[in-house]
Structure formats: structure tokens, C-alpha cells
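pls ignore typos typing on phone
protoporphyrin IX containing FE + seq
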Amino acid sequence: MLEKKARRWLKITHIVFIASLVGGLLSIFMIIRLPGFAQRELFVINYSMYILFNGVVTFSFYGVICTGLIYSVFTHWALSKHWWIMAKWVRTLSVFALVWIWPGPAINGMTALSDAGLAPRSDQFLYHDYAGNIGPAILVVMVIFITLITITIFKPWGQRTQAYALGRGTILILTGSVVVVSIAFGIRGDYDLESDRNLEISSPDLTRIPDGVYRGSAGYAEFGYVVKAKVNKHHIENIEVR
Ligand code: HEM
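k done
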């Protein structure tokens, strides 16, 4: 078990990660409201949100989860002894999943679209869809965070009457592997996204390409894409993506 002094340092670290997580999300919330940018500036604005999200927010989340794990394994609070700790875990992991599937893809999508010069065109419904999603998602997360802070201060619902107590080793193996696997997935996703964004696309010399239909395929995670390009008189006449 951690001594008093170590627990104080743990609390400082926990709070620093929370502050940086909340700060990152609120910065994105303010940036998304900036109006009227032309294409190049828009990319810089979106890229700033991208860096804030994939750098600050994601890694602060890992920090909060890791410090939460240390609290659950190496302090008297434990993982399943108190209802408020269990409630914190459920909310923290739900909010983590929510951030991953809601504002995360929207920010990545907006950055990719503005990078490709497809925004801020008014016919780019996908872009405007993404942009409209980020504010509400961050507001939902903030409300959950306020409930989390309230739970921490009031520590409600008392202690659980446990039929059996989980040993420290079991808790560490169970929760530790979940944390390690999710962090590994997160880092891998980030890495994949970066390498896809920096993919070099060469321009073929169409004057040397005979007419015909050319097929290519690529895979990303569990998705597979097949592309068919039709070349006619040295021009690409049609591209089909499936
Ligand atoms: C991963 C799940 C989490 C666990 C297991 C956890 C657990 C804990 C514990 C045991 C403390 C020390 C309480 C005390 O000694 O009085 C603490 C402090 C704190 N936690 Fe968490 N936490 C988690 C996630 C979060 C999240 C996501 C937030 C914020 C949105 C948060 C906000 C705070 C705050 C503000 C404190 C300091 C409270 C004080 O000093 O009274 N925690 N946490």
C-alpha cells in the first residue's frame, strides 16, 4: 500500500492529468466556434484541434486511467470496496469510449477534409456534420466530468458488502491488461492515422497508360477498399470505390 506522502504525489499527478484533459477539451470547444476561415487557415485551425485531441486529450486520458488504476490497486480505496470508486470507473471508461467514437473521428475527419482542400465548401455536408458534432460531444463529457468530481468530493453510497474480496494481484492483472490493451490500441490507431495521412501518392503519367480498367485494393483495420479506375484516351474517366 502507498504511504501518505506517495498518495499525495499520486493525487497531484491525478489532478494534473484531469486539468490537462479538461483544458484540452475546452480549448477544442472554443476553437471550433471560431468563424469564417478560408481553406489554408482552416486546415491550421483543424490541425491545432487534431494535435490537442491526439496529443493532449488522449494522453491525459491515459494518465487519468493509470493514476485511477494505481488508486484502485495500491491504496485502501481498492477497486470494488466502495460504490463511488466503482461509479468512477464506469463513468471514466464510458466517457473514454464516448470520446473515442464521437468527437475523435469528427476532428480527424475535419482535418483530413481541410487538408485535401475539400473544406470549407458549403456542399461538404460531411465536414459540416463533423463540425456540428464536436461541441455537443464535449458538453456531454463536461457534464459527466462534473458528476465525477462531485462523486469524488462527496464519496456517496458507502461501502460495498463484498461476498468475496478481489486480491490485489487479480485486480492488477484484470484492470492492468484492459488499460494496457486500450493504450496500445490508441497508440496504434494514432500511428496508423499518421502514416495514412502522410501516404505518398504519386501522379501516374497518363500519356503512357493504355485504355482499360485498373483495379487496386487497400485494407485499414477490418475494412477493405477496392478501387476501380477507368482510363479512356489517356484520361481517368471514372473512379469507383467499394
Ligand atoms: C479511472 C477512474 C478513477 C479512479 C479509480 C479515481 C479515484 C480517485 C481517488 C481514490 C481519489 C482520492 C480521493 C481522496 O483521497 O479523497 C481521486 C481524487 C480525485 N479524482 Fe479521481 N479517479 C478516477 C477518475 C477521475 C476522473 C475522470 C476525474 C475527473 C473528471 C477525477 C477527479 C478527481 C479529483 C478532482 C480528485 C481530487 C479530489 C480531492 O482532492 O478531494 N477522477 N480519484
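The mean pLDDT is 85. The CA atoms of residues 97 and 159 lie 27 Å apart. more later
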